[in-house]
């Protein structure tokens, strides 16, 4: 029987997650399977892969053929690296302990690279927030300057209007007093 390691779709429309299963190659995609060895959820960031490492390694060593996507997932988790190292142990190139040390060093390097990528993303996010904050501060300062100019112009216009009103009031008072002074003089000769 030809066995395949493949993804079995679950979830709802637009939100799929997958079981990683070992199945007969003739079985339908979501049909009967031999063994479930993990799960894959691409909806999280980064994608979540839970894998039974020993069982996946067993099935790869016994000849189960993975699909392209599952091959990438298994390779990412180190199944193919361990298979390669076990082949070296069988040939006598190095011991089981040396193979385990090489595998641990490979995984540590891989984790270090992943952490560097995450740190770089976080740093880029912080820089973006800082740039947006600076841009917002510049816009706010420009608006505040424009508002202060507008208020200064309004205050100057109000002051000019107040001076003009005061001048008009003084002129009106002067005009009112001048005819009032002239009127009694004109009335006095007429009254005689």
Describe the model.
The structure is a single chain. α1 (53-61) crosses α3 (79-91) and α3 (79-91) packs antiparallel against α4. Helix content is 67%, strand content 17%. The protein is elongated, with a radius of gyration of 43 Å. The model has no long low-confidence stretch (mean pLDDT 88). It has a 5-stranded mixed sheet. β3 and β4 form a beta hairpin. The protein has a domain at 3-66 and 73-93: Ribosomal protein S16 (S16 Ribosomal Protein, Chain: A), CATH 3.30.1320.10. It has 4 helices and 5 strands. It has 192 residues and is α+β, with helices and mostly antiparallel strands.
Topology:
Elements: E1 3-12, E2 15-24, E3 35-41, E4 48-51, H1 53-61, E5 65-66, H2 68-77, H3 79-91, H4 96-191
Parallel strand pairs: 1-5
Antiparallel strand pairs: 1-2, 2-3, 3-4
Helix pairs in contact: 1-3, 3-4
Any key phrases for this structure?
192 residues; elongated; alpha+beta
Helical percentage: 55-70%
Tell the overall outline: elongated
Measured on Cα atoms, how large is the radius of gyration?
43 Å
State the fourth-level CATH superfamily of one domain: Ribosomal protein S16
How many helical elements?
A: 4
Structural class call reads: alpha+beta
Distance between the termini: 144 Å
Largest sheet: 5 strands, mixed
Please indicate the percent range of residues in DSSP E strands (runs of 2 or more).
15-25%
Integer average pLDDT: 88
CATH topology of one domain: S16 Ribosomal Protein, Chain: A
Instruction: Report the top-level CATH class of one domain.
Output: Alpha Beta
